[in-house]
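Input/output pair, single chain:
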Amino acid sequence: MKNLFENLQFSHSEKLIFLHNLLLALCLSTIAGCVNAIGFISTGHFTTSVTTRVTTLGVGIAESSKKLLEMGGIWWFLFLGGAIFSNAFFHYFAARNKNPHYVYMFLLLVEGFFFLILIITGFNGKFSIPEFYYVAAQFFVMGSQNALVTKLSGAIVRTTHVTSMTTDFGMSIAWRFFLSKEIDDRKKWFKQISIQGTVIFSFLLGSLLGGILYISIAFNAYIFPLLIIIILIIVENYYIRAIINIHEEI
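Output:
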């Protein structure tokens, strides 16, 4: 990896930012895949993207179905609400000169607290809250996570679905056959396909592990994404110190 960075002429700051985006893609896509798998097995609903919710809303309007309107409209709105909450929180503290990475870590703590609640309320294998609200809460949290990582990575990483990433991954593979020998082009291609491949693989890995864990330990499976968040927060502390050191050197 070190020789690869040297061959592509990555600066220290470029390498640090790229590895950070790769870490976000790996950890948060794994979490999203895990949450989606647990949600699907336990309720029959995918809970990390809203493509099906928009379709459900449209069908609900066409059939005048109150149930479909609620499932499509409310869950879609909560995903949107999570994105609004996350970005508004970011801008609010950024305007007060707060380090965005500390704001990001706080939002990760909020997400981790949500998983902790799910573990506690579902400890006996059954939730003490209605299924509709359980699914709704997941949509809100996943909307918040997707907005959070999109903001932090400069819209490079998106973690809660793989439709657009699969399209981008295919385009990057095609681009490889027409890639020039210019360092900037090779560097851009390498960064793109690395992030895209990591998101797809991590989402699949999270889905696999989430499914296995839910079958084995029911809702205690949320311990896995909670542990990932704790690890990510610890690593973020190192990243923040590294960024501060670079600015001090400049």
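The chain has one domain: 14-249. The chain is about 80% helix and 0% strand.
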